[in-house]
Amino acid sequence: IWLTPFYPSPQVDNGYDVSDYCDINPDYGDMTDFRAFMKAADARGIKVIIDLVLNHSSTEHAWFKESRSSKTNPKRDYYIWREKPNNWESFFGGSAWEMDELTGEYYYHSFAKEQADLNWANEAVRAEMEQVLAFWLNEGVAGFRLDVINNLTLVLEFPDNPVASGEMEHVYD
User: Fold this and answer.
1) pLDDT tens digits along 92-122
2) Which residue, 1, 48, 120, 135, has fewest beta-carbon neighbours within 10 Å?
3) What is the DSSP secondary-structure string of 72-121?
């Protein structure tokens, strides 16, 4: 069985805007329900894989809230912040940069503005996500479907993407 996102989420993008990677959206139950489901699946010889969104989190995630609390917050580098945006466009349309009034800088979102991209150049982000993977493996999942895994690498000098015939070519993002 493949489970699409079932984590707590504001539901801007059908749960792909995760606000807590290690919990269950109350609309679907709680961890006790999940464990019962996993036990029932195992009893029937059914393997369960889950959708996991490693590229971005919801702007409602605790990491992002801390990240935007100040430019010196230790979680600031969990996300991609810039003083000035380049020409990158969101795959959902419009600029991929959103001004944060609190700190006066822009954060990068390759999808909805409520889905801030994580900074995979930061070792702490990679370590956090390894803990998330370990959490769900310890809960018995057999594997993962990794959403937009191709988006984890960016050209960190942030050059403008080329535009041909009025269309953005996503070369550097």
Assistant:
1) 989 999 999 999 999 999 999 999 999 999 9
2) 1
3) T-TTGGGB-EESS--S-B-TTSSBSEEEETTTTEEEE-SS-TTEEEB-TT
